[in-house]
Structures are given as C-alpha cells and as structure tokens.
Amino acid sequence: MVRLGFIVALIALIGVLLSGLAAYRVHDQELAIDGIALARAIDVHASLVQDRLTERELLARVASGLFRTPSMVKANMLQPLRSAIYAFKTDFVVAAWIARLKPNELTAAEAELKAAGFTNPSIRDFDDQALDIKALDKPINVLMDVEPRNPETLSIPGRAFDRHSVVGPMLARAMENAKPVASDPVPLLRQNGPVGVVLAAPVFQEGGSEPAGFITFSYELSSLMLTNDDSSLFAVALKDPRDSNDEFTANEQGIVTSRAVRQDGPLPSMVRTVTFGGRDWSLDYYAKSNATVRAQQTATIVAAIGLALTGIVCGLFGYVAYNNLRLSREIEVRIGFERRLTAVIDELNHRVKNILAVIQSIVTRTLRHGADIDVARELLIGRIHAMSNVVTLLSESQWQGVKLKGLFESRAIPHADRIAVNGPDITVSARAAQSLSLLFFELASHSDEGLSLVGKHPHIVANWEVAGEDAVFHFRWEEFNTSQATRRADSDFGLILLDRVAPEALGGTAKRYFTDVSYVYELTAPMDTVVDMTERDRTEQLSAPVRPAKK
C-alpha cells in the first residue's frame, strides 16, 4: 500500500507540474496568437485605408491635370470631367469647381450661375449671408459648379469660402503648396450634415504661377477611414487633428460623432498613421476583447483538465501527453501561418506600390503640359489597360510569370489581328511582363492607322528567339509597308519607354530604325533578367503550404 501510495503521489506530482507547464505555455501561445491576429487585422485595415486615401488623392490629381480652366467665367466647368470622376468609383459626397474670381468678374459670374439654373445665383458668403461685392479689393474663391446636381446641391454654387473656418484655410494651404490638401473634419453640405473631409487640388492655367481655382472632393469619414464590421477584432477611431484629446468614431449606422478621450480610459491597442492631402492622420485601434483575460481563462481550463487527468491511471496519462503535443503543434502551425500570411501581405503591398508607381509615371508623362487632351486620354486609357491585362495574367499564374504570347491578346494590343507572332512560348517574369506589355502597346498604338504608301495597312511581324551559349533573348518588331512619313511619331513617353525604360528593366539594349519598306525595333537582353528565377522562387516559397515544425 505504501508503495502504491508513493507511485500515486509521484504521478500526482508529475501531473500537477505538467498541468502547470501546459497552462503556462497555452497562456503565452494564446497571447501570441491573439497579438498576431490583431496586428495583422489592423495592418490590413490600415493598408486598405491608405489605399483608399491614395485612390482619392490620385483622383484629385488626375482631375486637376485633365481640367482646363476657361478664358471667361463659366458655371458648367465639371461637364467634361463627369465621366472621368465617376469612373474611379470613389463614392464622393460632392465634387465642386471653386473659381478664384477677381472683383470685376463677380457680376459675370452671377449671370453664369443664373443661366446654369442654380437656385441662388448671387455671390454671397459661405453661410448664405449677403456679400458686399463693391467693397472687395482682391480675388475671392467662389463655388461655380457641383456634381452631382440635386435639389440639395443646386443651392450651394455662388458661395465664397474665403472666410469659412475650415475650407478657407484649406484653400490657402493648397494655393501655397501647389498640391492637393485635405481639410480638418467638417460637416458636409449643411451645418448638421455628415462629418467628412474636403480634398482640394489647385488648377493652374497654362503658364500661370497662381491657381485659377480648385477642384474639390468631399468624402464622409465613416466610409473613408472608420469602416469596420461587427466581426472585426477591433474598433477604430480617428484622432482629431485639431485637439489630441478628442477623437471621431462611427456607429453601426455609419454616423460619425466626436468624443473626448478619458484620461482613465483604455489606451489604444495600436496606433497607425496614414497620409492624405499632405498631412498625417492618426488611427487609434481598440481591441474588442481582453486578450490577457481570455488567455488566463484558457490556461485555467487547461490546468483544470490536467489536474483531472492526473487522477486517471498511467495508461491514460500517456494519451493526455500525446494530445498536448498535438495541440502544441497545431498552435505552432497557426503561428507560422499568421507569419507567412503577413509576409505575403507585405509582398503584395510591395508589388501593388510598384504598380501604382508605374501608373503614376504613365499618368504624369501622358498628361504633360501641352499634350492634346483627346490623344492623351486615348493613350492613357490604352496604357493603363495594358497594365491591367498583364496584372490579370500575373494573378492567374499566382505571379509566377506570364506566357510571352499571351501579351499579344487583342484586348490589350491595338491592331492585334495584323501582328504575326513567331517565337518560343517562354514564360517571362512579372517585372519583365509589365515592361514588355507597355512596350508592345506602345509599338502597336503608333503603327499606321490609315493606308500605307502601297494602299494597304502595314503588316506587323513580331519575332523573338533565345540564342547563344549565354542564352540571350532577341526580340524584333517590324512593320512592313510603312515609312517615317506615314507612321505616327512616337510620343515623348514612348521614346523614353522604347529607348531607356524597357531595355534598362531587362538589363539589355534596344535600337529602332527605318528601312526602305519597314520600321524596325530590336531589343536584346539576357534571359536571366527576362525569366528572373529569383523572383519565381520567392513567389513559390510564399505560396507553399505551412508545415508544423519537426519535434
């Protein structure tokens, strides 16, 4: 009996020690898992918010670049931009054209507002109070057009916002900085309207040093920065840029309210900073559940189970140890999965930023000063469509490369039916695919759109081969039945792409010239950069399944 009691006591002591150790380990692992899950969810939310803000700021830049200020006062200036601003689908509350008018232009402005059918065409202060026009001795910022037009917005044009406590300083900063500027949070449309921010982009006349006016877009804070669903792990609040002791929150209906931050209240679990309109905005994230309490509860349950199992016979003790090991491995798999997912998100963010940088370069160089707006719009849409096509192909292949012949599809290349493609169907890297897609579009879009010298459309031949012991990629584009007189001249962006960007991206060289009957473009590059196995290996590692660590 004494021996049996000793064995039972020894088993009980081992069981207590193991139960305490298991509870401690589970407690730490639950805290780590909750922390990783919360950090990942917050990073994803902050990244989505930043992408959303970048899209809005890009819309303002594109709109101000496409906008052409009039030689006289007009009240229907947003008409050419309506299709463009709605194509971005950025769900703005109202878009507006605010003209910077001289005192001697205000009478003509009132006549334009009246002719446009706005309900109150008089030039007045921002609060609809009468404005003494004769007493003005300097230009003022007057709202001359809005979109959308509805009974509520039709009464807004004619207001001068120079003395508005929020919009006035914002317009002054935009004029001083000569770039888009965001306002402080402000009620939109009316005094008790939804809380939002206004983004103003200055518009310059050709050769002008001061803005002729501003394109503005108003957005609600709830959909812009404070969106999160009921199942999320956190609640998000926006720090008031005017008072660090206040913050904005949105309820389930999307209504934004301001609240004071209590000194004895809970601290934010994490703080993330996003940029918008030339300023930083702080987002405070509050965890909805207490991870420490939940981990303690889980650890307590594990300890209780361990103590209960201690009373079972030695055979069942081994079974308990096996289950504990399996649970440990599953937790390690979950931690590894979260880390792998964070790496994938970082890689995706890097690639998205690269694509956005390419698109920003395309927009900037296409919409340069002096460019014909119709030609620029056609080229801009085509170049972005070519980028969209190659991104779609890369997504279908999980970013492991694209078949070279797939870049010649008619949905992305003009005159694809006239292009004879010949060459091995090699798989090029993501970086090479983006450069080659823009290169093929640029070559095809500048081929002869009319009849050639012999009365026929040019016949285009695209050949490539891989030759030599060093595996060198040779590409040749030749347009027959064309000449320097009939082929449309390459744009500045096209010349830079053909002669510098594409060759440098592939680490090769290029040349272009005319023969007696054709136009030729040749590109030579090493296959190591065209295929880029390093990029493919990294993508395969990120997409590989997570396996538990070996014990």
TrEMBL record:
UniProt name for this protein: histidine kinase
Localisation: Membrane
EC number: 2.7.13.3
Keywords: ATP-binding, Kinase, Membrane, Nucleotide-binding, Phosphoprotein, Transferase, Transmembrane, Transmembrane helix
Residue stretches making up the CHASE domain: 171-225
Catalytic activity: ATP + protein L-histidine = ADP + protein N-phospho-L-histidine
S-adenosyl-L-methionine among keywords: no
GO CC, alphabetical: membrane
GO molecular function: ATP binding; protein histidine kinase activity
Any single biological process term in GO: signal transduction
PROSITE patterns the record matches: CHASE (PS50839)
Signal peptide segment: none
Superkingdom field: Bacteria
Membrane-crossing residue ranges in chain numbering: 301-322
SMART domains (UniProt xref): CHASE, HWE_HK
